Amino acid sequence: MSKQPSQTIGTDESTRSSNSLLSVSDLCTYFQTDEGVVKAVDGVSFDVQSGETVAIVGESGSGKTVTSESITRLFKSPPGFIPEGSIEFDGEEVNDMTVEELRTLRGGRVSHIFQNPQGALNPVYTIGWQLREAIELHQEVTKKEANEKAIELLTQVGIPEASARLGDYPHQLSGGMKQRVMIAIALACEPDLLIADEPTTALDVTIQAQILKLLKSLQEERDMAILFITHDLGVVAEVADRVVVMYAGKVMERGPVMEIFETPSHPYTRALLECLPSKGNLGGIPGSLPSPIDPPDGCRFASRCVFAQDECLEGPQPPAYEAGTADHVVSCIHYEPGGNPDIVLKSDATVSALDVDQMGVGGENR
Amino acid sequence: MSVDTDPTTQSANVRKDADSVTFEDVNWDEIDGTARGFTRTRIAWYAIMGTYLLALLNDLFNRFAEGAYQRTVAFITDTSRYQVETPGFIPGAGPAEYPLVGEIGGVTWLWSLTLLVGVFYVAIPLYQNQRMTAYYWREFKKNKAAVISLIYLAIIFAIGLTVPRFMDPPEVEPVLAYQPPVWGSVRETVPIQCVGPVSGGECHGSWAHPFGTTHQGKDILISIVYGMEISMQVGLIGMFLTILIATTVGLTAAYFGGYVDEILFRYVDIQITFPTFFLYLLVVYLVGGSLFVMIIIFGVLGWGGIARIVRSEALQRREEEYIMAAKNAGAGGLWTMRRHLLPNVSNSVITAATLVIPGLILAEAALAFLGLGDPRLPSWGETIADGRSDLDRAWWISTIPGVFLFMTILAFNFLGDALRDALDPRQGGGE
Amino acid sequence: MKWYIFKRLLWAGVATMVVLTITFVLMYLTPDTRIMELEFQAAQSGTDPEQARQAAETARGMDQAFHIQYIDFMQNMLSFNWGWSDSRSEPVIDALASAIPYSMMYGVPAVIISTIIGIVIGLYSAVNQYTRGDYVATFVAFFGISIPNFWFAIILLVIFGTWLGWVDLLFDTQASKIDGEWALRAIVSWENVKQLILPMFVLMTASVASMMRYTRAEALEYVESDFIKTAKAKGVSERTIVAKHIFRPASIPIATILVGDILGIVFVGSYLIEVVFGIPGLGYLSFDAIMSQDTALVFGTVFVPVFVAIIGNLAQDIAYVILDPRIKYGDR
């Protein structure tokens, strides 16, 4: 199990951590199914400070979406449940909140945008109705004020002739426009944290860039933190301040974006970066994700790791060891105090050193 | 659905016809890729169908050779309430006599055809394709209610098919009227003469009439056993006719498209607008309510919904590559439909058709209850109607047959629901 | 949209004409039982059956050419001149007019109540899928769909009428009237309501069950959808999500079954139920007409549900375009 940063990394960090806007530690989210308990998220820790952008990166099935949905408990429950871990938002424990308190949080201080704008808007209501609903839920406004606010929001997200668009139904808008409407809904109550779950994946490349730019500028205007969920390292480089790399329900590496890209320390992060189209390896990481129901002992990534040793297959996932700077931690046995990180850092070995016949699933599109 | 063979067919056939092993060793399917091979089952099927058709033609010829019109009317209304022998009527030769079975009526003709098709297109393929059967069975048996339903229906079917062959139909015996069921009792004054023991002014039931008797003294148990066959006939023949028409219309419309589609499905639109029950009611009222007529009406008027399902499924398939490939390979329309479209829609058709059965059984019972059926046939609805005016003194006449009716409909509903889960890939709660 | 509604109206007109034409052809082709009876009587009393038949046919205009009879028939039908009821010695329309209020008196509340109950239970089942409540509701629904309502009515009459004596076996036709006139005060009087409880209950079993099954299936399509997650993320309460975000899109297909199936179930159900309970409504009238071979009245009583179905279909199609912003008007 990875430990909380405060435990691993000095005391000055722990004070910082308690001031975090969002502090997730040892979060587990499981799902009861016919085949057994699916451990979608299995001990995940990270922080988000006000105004910054944190990106959670990982391939499909790594648990990043479930992590993001755990923060305001959006996943379906039952079968989903949180057996342990804590989620602190602005000093308050979310897991202890009543349904009522949770509802105030959702869409109030924490809001979401989702991957698929096609389905995320209710097809039988106008976008004006859906915007007003978001506004009226958290603010005491008259209908007229809500309408004005809706127009203002639509203008802010770059929808031309906003007042004329209020009466439109979702099917009358393009995908990019729908995502803008989703963003407007998310921004309706001036949230402190915006959780964006792959907001650009379903969109055309040109639209993607526009939406990213829009998010960036809105963030600057409002001093809003963004938790950005993505599998696309290119997007990460563009938007993130800090990065959390997830694999099979665990955090593999966590650190400032520059460090992650310049000195990727976990073998998994390195493999992911190698799979960027510019690096030439289009094959992906050989092998596949371990079973989420009955995960193997040791490091979750061991079976696909070129640096794996016998110890990697035993015990729990290695704790978060410091790698270079205090803010950059890695869950890998080679970074143990007294270990030799150079085995990974100085190695020329690439993912293709493993059996490349079986094309894996690393860094792919869904 | 098809009697097509795979390797297991051959072994199955070897077991069945051990005396012709040499012929069996040739697997025609492996030699002839078009699957036109004459397997044992197929030969048997053609032989039986040939015999069936010859016998049917002979019967029809005997019936209609002379005085065709009058005979037709008499045939259709043969058991209806206004059969009138008008003077000047030219008698035809009458229905043909066959060895062993004697005369064969309209319902029996349809019933045997339905059973034959059931054997050759359901039972034998299931037996031959054991892996598929095992798979379906695994899926199916997850549903406990459906398994119990299947057992119940199998029992009803078996009794209904066999017992009436050697047991006389219930007879009117006014002396034995109003006997209570074996576990019940009734005031001594209600029955004319109590068969069971009498004590304290109460007439108790006896094993001579386990379910009691009606106001005419008909034994209710025997009526119920006869009713089993009638309900099965209504449900299964009705389903057979429905499937036959619905798939033909649906596939034709989907395959040809254009005007053919437009005309056929505009008609279906109208047919579906009609509340089916009232359509049945009207037609049965006009032409008379023999069981034969009722079944034909059910089959001919109730297929609209399934035809729509077939059409939409087939339309999706039609555009798929293997259909195109078959067309390009020179396959004709009928061939493509039967070989490529039909197997692909069969699952949804079977599922939908199973859910048609309870509706038909209920409709027959309701019409019989309203007095539109053949009063001489002891269908469940008829028996329920018999007791309607005696609710205050003989509660068992109406209630006991209803239990069977209810259970049978419930069982078919459970079965259809489970089949949908097991067979239908599109699965969803509603249609 | 106007054009679409016009087209649907036209289509309803065509359907009506087709129904009437089919009926006419059926009537034309099948031998008239009353004439056959006359022939039979004539033959028995020694007169010429052929003569008797001709006389009867002339009296009924049946010796006219096919197309003249057809036009006559259509004109009569469309002008609500539905013929003379022999058994009741009054015009068919009058017989219908006196019977229909009895059917509506319990049919309308039954439809409204069962729609509401069915939708509520269906939504509950969908939101709580695979819980105990859902299983119970589903199981009860299977019973409701499967139980033959005329038999169920008999069972209830035996229990509550014969054994417990709580209700009368005979229906009091005057309980809903004051001095022979329909009166609201009498309709809602306990005496009248008491005798309508069982018929309504039986009528509602099947319609609640189908409504519930259908609502559940439709709502399930949306329970897991992305926009429900959006609504949740906005902070919408569970109840509002069900009422606004799930029910509203599901209500469009539900409206279909309301007209298509529920109306059918209610008409067929009430038909048989009236026979059992002896309520002198449309169903009982029809049953009486069948028993006394009163063909004109049989047709009249069957036309009512058929036309209601046609109008219902029309209303449903129009409701569809109003409720669903996505529909293309050109669609079938």
TrEMBL record, chain A:
Cellular location of this protein? Cell membrane
Q: Name one GO cellular component term.
A: plasma membrane
Task: Please list the GO terms describing molecular function.
Answer: ABC-type nickel transporter activity; ATP binding; ATP hydrolysis activity
Reactions the enzyme catalyzes = Ni(2+)(out) + ATP + H2O = Ni(2+)(in) + ADP + phosphate + H(+)
Q: Where is the ABC transporter domain?
A: 22-273
Per the UniProt entry, what is one GO biological process? peptide transport
Q: Which UniProt keywords apply?
A: ATP-binding, Cell membrane, Ion transport, Membrane, Nucleotide-binding, Translocase, Transport
Q: Say yes or no: keyword Protease present.
A: no
Give the EC number. 7.2.2.11
NCBIfam families with a match to the protein in the record: oligo_HPY
Q: This chain belongs to which protein, by name?
A: Nickel import system ATP-binding protein NikD
TrEMBL record, chain B:
Location comes to:
Cell membrane
Question: Which Gene Ontology cellular-component terms appear in the entry?
Answer: plasma membrane
List, alphabetically, the InterPro entries matched: BP-dependent_transpt_permease, MetI-like, MetI-like_sf, OppC_N
Q: Name one GO biological process term.
A: transmembrane transport
Q: Family per UniProt? A: Belongs to the binding-protein-dependent transport system permease family.
- PANTHER family (UniProt xref): D,D-DIPEPTIDE TRANSPORT SYSTEM PERMEASE PROTEIN DDPC-RELATED, OLIGOPEPTIDE TRANSPORT SYSTEM PERMEASE PROTEIN APPC
This chain belongs to the protein called ABC transporter permease
UniProtKB/TrEMBL annotation, chain C:
| Membrane topology recorded in Swiss-Prot or TrEMBL | Multi-pass membrane protein
InterPro entries referenced in this protein's UniProt entry, alphabetically: MetI-like, MetI-like_sf
Query: Key word Cytoplasm present in the record?
Result: no
Mind telling me which residue stretches traverse the membrane in this protein? 9-29, 106-127, 139-166, 196-214, 254-277, 297-323
> GO CC annotations?
plasma membrane
Originating organism: Natronosalvus hydrolyticus
Similarity-based family: Belongs to the binding-protein-dependent transport system permease family.
The entry's localization annotation reads: Cell membrane
Indicate where this protein is primarily found. membrane
UniProt-listed Gene3D superfamilies: MetI-like
Q: Keywords of this protein's UniProt record, alphabetized?
A: Cell membrane, Membrane, Transmembrane, Transmembrane helix, Transport
Domain ABC transmembrane type-1, first and last residues per copy: 100-320
Record-given protein name:
ABC transporter permease
Any one of the GO BP annotations? transmembrane transport
